[in-house]
Amino acid sequence: MPFYTADISDEHHEKVQVLSPEYHSYGGVEKCKGPIATLKLNEENSDLIKMLKEPGEGRIAVVDVNRAHYAVVGENLMKFAHENGWAGILINGYVRDTHITKTIPVGLWALGTCPRKSHKKQPGERDVTFTFGGVFFKNGEILLADHDGIIVIDEETLEG
Ligand SMILES: O=C([O-])CC(=O)C(=O)O
Ligand SMILES: [Mg+2]
Asked: Which fold is adopted by the domain 5-159?
């Protein structure tokens, strides 16, 4: 079903959460939609690699890395996401290899780019709730993105 974030915002203005405009698109698609799967990271991305190697089933990985200035996604992770059926990745942090990530048909949004990655091994935490960009993220809620921005809404409201 085609959708527009602007129309959904109008229809459900009391229930829609709108992400702040500081997140930019670095993926090969700007329009995508899917249930959220959360992951909290501490600079380092090995738990995100693990997650993107699992079946995505059209979900969107929402990753809070607390704005750490290290890239947590690049060409390789985008390829894993594409191969395993993830619709998109939203990072509260930074990405790299963007000349290639822009050619891979998965959504990717981040604060910006950074050439380095972290080599510190640190565990992440899956399926947690957190807030960034003015949005409260919780597993299962629906993220929709298009050229106007990114919104989050619960499935019942969206489908009802
Ligand atoms: O290797 C990493 O951790 C990030 C990256 O550059 C890639 O996904 O290609
Ligand atoms: Mg790379």
From this structure: Glucose Oxidase; domain 1 (3.50.30)
